[in-house]
Write a structure and sequence with these properties.
The chain is an alpha/beta fold and 194 residues long. The chain has one domain (6-193): Aminopeptidase, CATH 3.40.630. The protein has 6 helices and 8 strands; from the N terminus they run E-E-E-H-E-H-E-E-H-E-H-E-H-H. It has helices at 29-45, 68-78, 109-127, 142-145, 163-166, 172-193, and strands at 6-12, 23-24, 27-28, 55-58, 83-92, 99-104, 132-138, 151-159. The strands form 2 sheets. A 6-stranded mixed beta sheet has the order 4-1-5-8-6-7, with helices on both faces. Strands 2-3 form a two-stranded antiparallel ribbon. Strand 6, helix 3 (109-127) and strand 7 (132-138) form a beta-alpha-beta unit. Helix 3 (109-127) packs across helix 6. It is globular and about 50 Å long. The two termini are 13 Å apart.
Length: 194
């Protein structure tokens, strides 16, 4: 039986209506997450088509009323043709330090593959100079548990309200490096699971 190709479904947190996510001074989660997600998407598209066994799609959440439920329906609609790997990019708040990746806590292949991908993302972000807070698990976060098939991770790139942490992502160049680090992890994942 031939495996379905992988498709990376990229999105950024927040942006539906007036939701801009966490903020601290000039640092606004929505703006930071959009730049990282776009850099990730651009890096993936730059890969030679001859070397790509995977596909990628990116949906900006900037339409008023575009909900997480609609996003889940889009992912589900791709699953007839593809193995979906969904990545939602965020920035954190609450005074912590470093990046963390969330995946489902439900036992089975989704958790195992989500952990594998998350560990790779964190490893690549560390190469870009960010600390790692490690893998986190939840049965409640909507994006990583709905739909019930496919691999889903939520990436928190850093803390907007931590002055020391912000030094790692306070320029467009650094945000681009974060996006490219995530893209490299996705490519590594695809190469392993072709």
């Amino acid at each position: 039986m031939v495996k379905k190709p992988i498709i990376f479904y990229l999105s950024h947190g927040h942006g539906s209506g007036s939701d801009k996510g966490a903020a601290s001074g000039r640092f606004v989660e929505l703006e930071l997450a959009r730049k990282v997600t776009k850099a990730c998407y651009d890096y993936l598209l730059k890969q030679p088509k001859s070397k790509r066994s995977w596909r990628v799609t990116y949906k900006e959440r900037l339409v008023s009323g575009y909900t997480l439920a609609q996003q889940a329906e889009q992912i589900k609609s791709l699953q007839n043709e593809y193995r979906t790997v969904s990545i939602d990019i965020h920035f954190n708040a609450g005074g912590g330090d470093g990046a963390e990746v969330w995946t489902t806590n439900r036992l089975g292949e989704r958790k195992r593959l989500g952990t594998e991908l998350g560990d790779s993302i964190l490893s690549n972000l560390k190469k870009s100079g960010q600390n790692s807070r490690g893998m986190k698990y939840s049965n409640d976060l909507y994006f990583i548990n709905t739909p019930s098939k496919g691999v889903s991770v939520l990436v928190e790139c850093g803390f907007v309200d931590n002055k020391a942490d912000r030094k790692g992502f306070d320029t467009d160049k650094e945000l681009k490096a974060y996006g490219e680090a995530i893209a490299k992890a996705l490519i590594q994942y695809a190469e392993k699971h072709e």
